[in-house]
Amino acid sequence: MAKYRKLSHTVYHCNFHVVFVPKYRYRILEGKVKDIVEHKIRQVCEWNDVEIEEMNIQADHVHMLISIPPKGSVSEIMGIIKGKSAIHLFKTRKRLKEKPYLGNHFWARGYFVTTVGVDEDLIRRYIQHQEKEEKKHESDSNEYRLF
């Protein structure tokens, strides 16, 4: 069953599968660089109430399954994650900035995202049978009315 999260006036299940890569897809996410990137991603997600369900950092890409509150957007969160992690990497690993192919850009420009939700067929069946269930519930409750 889906894991629902709550805000003050909202219950939601907004999960996304996100994949993003370093510039030119260089195999640079290894060792200390990988550790720095993982730490910064977790930190940024915590600051923005984004829950990381799963994360896998490979040498040339990052896979994440994240839950983003409805008050935020995927593009906003990805901009913060990529921006903050790149700035932190360039501050802590000075040699990265010297590489001619990186300059001031660590991540490639775009990313892949897809929604991950509850089973579509289950929702379709729920919607189709909801009216029947409400009518049944209404007739049951009418039996116990006083007026």
Architecture overview:
This protein has 147 residues and is an alpha+beta fold. It has a single domain (9-117), classed as Alpha-Beta Plaits (2-Layer Sandwich). 44% of the residues lie in helices and 20% in strands. It is built from four helices and six strands, in the order βββαββααβα. The protein has helices spanning 31-47, 74-92, 94-98, 120-142; strands at residues 5-6, 11-12, 15-20, 51-58, 61-67, 112-116. A four-stranded antiparallel sheet has the order 4-5-3-6, covered by helices on one side. A hairpin with a 4-residue loop joins strand 1 and strand 2. The longest helix has 23 residues, at 120-142. It starts with a strand and ends in a 5-residue tail after the last helix.
What brief labels describe this structure?
Alpha-Beta Plaits, about 20% strand, elongated, four-stranded antiparallel beta sheet, two-stranded antiparallel ribbon, 6 strands, alpha+beta, about 150 residues
Short characterization:
Helix content is 44%, strand content 20%. The protein is of the alpha+beta class and 147 residues long.
